Every structure is written in structure tokens, then in C-alpha cells.
Amino acid sequence: MIIYDSKKRCIHLQTKHSSYVMQVDNGYLLHLYWGKRINHYLGSRPVIKAPRSFAPYADPKHRGFSLSTLPLEYPGYGNGDYRHPAYAVQLENGTTVSDLRYSGHIIYSGKRKLRGLPATYVEKNAEADSIDLMLEDQVTGLSVILTYTVFRDFDAIARTVRFENKGNRAIRLLKVSSASLDLRDNQFDLLTFYGTHNDERNMDRQPLAPGSRVIESTRGASSPQHDPFFALMRKNADENQGDVFGFSLVYSGNFRSQIEVEQYHTTRASIGINPFTFSWKLNPEASFQAPEAVLVYSDQGLGGMSRTYHQLYRSRLARGTYRDRVRPILINNWEATYFKLNEEKLLAIAAEAQKAGIELFVLDDGWFGRRDNDKSSLGDWFVNKRKLPHGLKGLSKRIHDIGLAFGLWFEPEMVSPDSDLYRAHPDWTLHVPGRPHSLSRHQLVLDLSRADVRRYLYQSLSTILSDADINYVKWDMNRHMTEVGSALLPPDRQQETAHRYILGLYELMERLTHAFPNILFESCSSGGGRFDPGMLFYMPQTWTSDNTDAVCRLNIQYGTSVVYPAIAMGAHVSAVPNHQVGRVTSLAMRGAVAMSGNFGYELDLTKLSDEDKATVKKQVAFYKKIRPLIQFGNFYRLCNPFTSNDAAWCFVSPDQKEAIGFYFSVWFNPNLVQKVFHFQGLNPDFVYENCANGDVFSGDELMNSGLNVPIEKGDFHRYLWWIKKVE
């Protein structure tokens, strides 16, 4: 619901459990409140406009009206606000001063699509209300539309910004934030995620301090180093209680989150496109659409915030045929064969997979061109008949005849210097004339800002997808951008290249997913290097990490779950010793960790013992029973592996009639204190039966008294409790 009070000029956005309040004052849009829902906001805490030393004042009649101290909703630069701005522009005369003032608003039902960009959506107008707030700079003709959408069923507010040049001279955008707001105190901890390849989404919680904290990517992708997300948590907030304010950017390129505590102990927070090497020339009558930011407030701690993101992103960000379907259990041949694949070996793995009840066989890297290692052939999307004499069509038919669906790996955004494509079109890569190329993994990045490159990729990929019976595509991206320049852009638009690349990528993905709606697309970037909301709009699941070690995955999947739902997280059982870290864990441990996401295997089933093959078959059968619960249930984190020797979580069905709990003991220590597993999210009045042994307990008993965790010597144990309501 959106309420406008014309007398107070207040705009009140209401979700089920939160309120967000703004006010127009002297033409400026002020931020008054964001937090627990207020049914009737009557102005209990007005902004105090006290004169401050060295504070320039925007209203000559009121020395206290200074932009340097007011809580602003979308601040600019040059008029006395010395904090970091939400946007920055440069005019043709070289100056960078602008002054946006409120000029009106429109409230409407529903949510408009963003042209060329991923965003949350509604299926019916009654699901949301939106407001467009118009701001104008009378001198330059710059018009900015701030759009806020309030969802009926989610405690979330979607924000975005559109710039329009209504003047007669070009304007250069230097910085564009999708969301910015000023909170009137600084009593927060900042939660962010950091990492690297094979070690994604480590959690970091630090108290805010005076000055700025920046979380960003300049790599051309959202990156494994940082996630386009942060949360501000009240000091007493934890997993289950306290105020948490989440900021998530629906974008897959360079981003920046900036949190600033200024001299009077207030907090400015913003998120958007990274201004580093970014600018955009906005000619008269042209417009620029910023990506969407999704803001979530929770008074039920980090877990409450996570469940809102999970439900919203699963049902109103992800799209397509597979959005509401259980995802198939797959076997991927990569760690089984690497580049040394042949049709006979692949069919043998597929036959074992079928015996185990696995549903999908995925052919990974090495099937095309002259690809015997990672030094050649990216871009040459034709079948290597030496490895696959019957082609993809023949292999796909044989896989389907065995009883499995068939999936295929691509890395469309890259090209190998040793490839027919590069020899024919060296100018199709990102490059700067006169500068040498920097190679990464022996490959270069194709310039997806170019329409001719996108046409080639669409034709090449669609030809393969049309020729063979392909049910699944793994879309990989294994290097970041260097020498970021485009041969087709003029000098004054070169700094648009990185963003135009992302827009081109989105266009290509939109065409392919629309043309092949029955293919399940999975995003990958050496694992979790581009795990972001923008990709989920086109591809409803992502390979979470190349690191498949069960112990490492506890942290990786725990951190990822803060924003992203389990159904989006690819999680596979691999061979031991683990190929990434060399650790040996039991098949039971590896299976339970992988079952906590989108389940699959990545090993050579033909080399397993009969005992392990029987275990795999049991795991597959068990996951099929609990799959709807994992992929569509509510998720609760119970024990944090970043701060504990153990990890624990549970999934609860939306009707609370079924739940499954997982407890993982990593390192064994003597004289352990008895550990207890406490379910969360159950109905306290229900009676539940343990599906393993028939024991019966009440819901409040399972949540409050809990269950004893068995004590076993040795490292790397897992324990499961699958319960159902007694009818």
C-alpha cells in the first residue's frame, strides 16, 4: 500500500510488516523512516533542522536547512552535501553541479518492466503498488524518476531510477545508484560477503565506524570477491531476532555498495553501478535506466530477511518453465573425464547413472572444436567428431534411450586466440588498440556490446540447441574483463563498454531462453563467480562453487543462503580425495551437504565400488522424496560454520506439515558437551513423527527442548531428522 498525505507531503510505503516514509520539504525528498510497520504515520519524529558550523544552507530563510545534514532520499553533488552522492553528472561546460527538486508523483497498481534489464515482477497488478517520484533540475533539463514498488505478499521494496535528458545539450552520467537513503543514526553492524574462486561468500560482520566502507567489483562481473548485497544489522540483531535492513542489486556487472558514517553519526547507504571507469553520454531526449535494487526489512533477524529474499527471488525473479518445477538430479562428467572424453566413456557413465535413478546427464567442456585442453577452440561451436562420432544429436539420442535427459556445457562469452572464430574476427574481442591482450585461462572476452557478436552467438548456439534433443544448458564464464574497450564505440562512449556488455549479455540470454523455453539453463562462472539476482532472472539456478569439498561447501552454501534460495544453488557429490582440497569425507557426508541444495553428482560412477553404487542409489531415492521440501520449503539456519565447529539448518514445508533437519559435525574433540538440534519454523501445536524410527514429538518440544545429536568418534559426520505431521 502507498499512502500520500497531501498536507504533510508525506509518502508512506507499507508492506505487511514494514513501513518506509519520505517527505517533500522545500522541493527536496527527505527520508524519515524505514522499519517495523506503522499503521498511521502522523509525523512523530520530524527532521530537526538545527544550524551547524560550516554547513551551507539551501534555504536562505532557514540556516538549519542544509543539505549536508538532512536525511536525503536521492542526493546529488555540488549544493552543500559533502557526503557521497547517489548520482553525479557532468555538463557540456565541464561543471558537475545539479539540483534535483520534486515536481510530482504518480501512484499506480502493479509493476512496470524494466527495458533491457532483469527485475522482479508481478503476474497480476493486485500483487503490488508502485509510485513514480519525479525530480527535475530546472537549469539543465535533467529529469529523474525514482520508482518504488511495494509487494503485497513480501516485506520487500523494489527501487530503481531512470534518467531523462529533457534539455537541449548532452549530459554525461558519471555515477548512477539504484538506491540511496540516509538513516538517522549509526548503531549498526555491516554484513558483507567476500571470497575468491573456490572460496565464495564468506561472511563478514563489522561495526560501522566513521568514514566510508565500500564493497565493489571492477571485474566486469558481480564476482566471487564480493556480492552485490549488504545488510545493516542492529547491534542486538542475530539470526532470529532484531532489525535487519537488506540491500540487493539485480545486476551482473560492476557494482558498488557504499556505507558512510558522517560527522553527526548518521548513515548513508547506497548501491548501484560502479562509477569506476563508467560514464554514459545522455543526448537530448535520451534516457538511461538503472538496474533494480531490492530492499528488505526484517525484525526477525537475518533469517527473516533471508526467507523474504528466498520467496521473492524464487517466485517473482526467476521465470520460465522450471520456476515452479522440482529440478532434476544430474550427473556431470567434468571431474570424471575432464577433457579426455569419448562417446563410449560417456555412455558408460550414463548407464550407471540410470541404474542409480539419476535423471539428467550433463556433457561438460571438451566436446567441440579441437578442444583437448583449455588452450583452444572457444568460439568454435561445432562438434568434435573424433570424440563424438555420432555428433551431439547421436549422443543425445543414446542418452535419452538409456532413460536420461541430456544437458550440455557452453562458454559463449569467451574466445580462444587459437580458434577459427578469433582468426576470422580478432576485432570481436574486448580490446584497446595498440595495447596487448591480457590472457586468462588462455582466453579472451568477446565484445557482447556488439550486435554482430550477439547475432553470431545466437545463431551458433540455437543451431546446436535445435539440432540435438537438449534439455539443460550449463552457461559458463571463466574469466573477467581486461582491456575494456570496444572497436565499434566512439571515443566519448568507451566508458560505456562494460555496462553495454552486460546489456548485450541480457539481450542474448533473453532471446535464447525465450526461443528454448523447455531447456533448463544454469548459470556458472568458475562456480559462483557470477551468482547474482540478475542471472537468476534468466537462469533459475547457478553452480554455487567449483569447490565440491563437503566441509568447504558448508560455509559456501551457508553464506550463499543469506540471499539466495536452495533451489538456485547447484550442489554436487564429487570423488575423494576431493579434487580441490584433497580432503576425504564419507559419501554420506558429501551426500547430505549436496542434498541441502540442487542435488547432483560430479564423479565417475563406473569406478565406484558396489557398496558406494548402492549408497548413491539410496541417496537419489531419498532426495526425490524430500526434493519438494528442499526446493520450495522455508529455510532456517541453525548453527553457523563460520563461528562454530559444526553447521546445522532445516527446511520446513509452507504448510508446516513436514520438515527435515541437517546437522554436520566437522572435527571431533574428546569430552564433548552434548549437542542439541532445535528445529525452527514448526507449528507448535502439531505432533510430528520421525520418519526414520516412528518417534513422536510435539512441534514446540522439537523447537524448544530439541533432539540430542549423536556423539561419534571421528571427523565429518552428518545427521538427519525427517519429520511429518501426525494426521
TrEMBL record:
Annotated CDD domains: GH36 (cd14791)
Name recorded for this polypeptide: Alpha-galactosidase
GO biological process annotation, one example: carbohydrate catabolic process
GO molecular function: alpha-galactosidase activity
Catalysed conversion reaction: Hydrolysis of terminal, non-reducing alpha-D-galactose residues in alpha-D-galactosides, including galactose oligosaccharides, galactomannans and galactolipids
Family per similarity comment: Belongs to the glycosyl hydrolase 36 family.
Pfam families the UniProt entry points to: Glyco_hydro_36C, Glyco_hydro_36N, Melibiase
Stretches assigned to the Glycosyl hydrolase family 36 N-terminal domain: 27-283
Keywords: Glycosidase, Hydrolase
E.C. numbers: 3.2.1.22
Active site residues per record: D476 (nucleophile), D546 (proton donor)
InterPro entries noted in UniProt: Aldolase_TIM (IPR013785), Alpga-gal_N_sf (IPR038417), Alpha-glycosidase_related (IPR050985), GH (IPR017853), Glyco_hydro_27/36_CS (IPR000111), Glyco_hydro_36 (IPR002252), Glyco_hydro_36_C (IPR031705), Glyco_hydro_36_N (IPR031704)
Annotated ranges, domain Glycosyl hydrolase family 36 C-terminal: 647-723
Species whose genome carries this gene: Sporolactobacillus terrae
